[in-house]
Amino acid sequence: MLHPFGSILQNTNNMKNIFLLLAFCVTPLCYAADNNRSAEPQAQTTKQNYKKTVVLSCDLHCQACCDKIMKNIAFEKGVKDLICDLKSKTVTVVYDTRKTDSETLLKAFDKIGKPATIKE
Predict the structure, then answer these.
(1) Residue 94: CB partners within 8 Å, gap ≥ 6?
(2) What's the pLDDT tens digit per position in 49-101?
(3) Which of 26, 63, 71, 105 sits at a 20 to 30 Å CA gap from 10?
(4) Fold of 50-118
(5) d(CA 69, CA 98)
(6) What are the boundaries of each domain within the chain?
(7) Contact in structure between 55 and 119 (CB atoms under 8 Å)
(8) How much is the mean pLDDT over the chain?
């Protein structure tokens, strides 16, 4: 019985060429997959280094006060997360230190008529 690739496999030069072609095709794929795995954790830790959390004490009377803060402060540059707690009258803000700071956030609270102070 004749093999479909018999004529190609009989010639040793063709076999060497096929082997080299496969080696050159597979090696870059393995290298790229290895680089992608090692880059992800480093990028994630870099992002974590720039996040900071501050707890602000604010005079909150009702849910409308929380809604006002959520609608306005959430769109300040650098704000990543915002939690408004009506019971403890605090607002927890997670922000990117490359884009804003706590003083800028306090000014934003003053601008909407809800002055706040940093709670320690």
Answers:
(1) 51, 52, 53, 79, 80, 81, 82
(2) 889 999 999 999 999 999 999 999 999 999 999 999 999 999 999 999 999 99
(3) 26
(4) Alpha-Beta Plaits (3.30.70)
(5) 22
(6) 9-47, 50-118
(7) yes
(8) 80
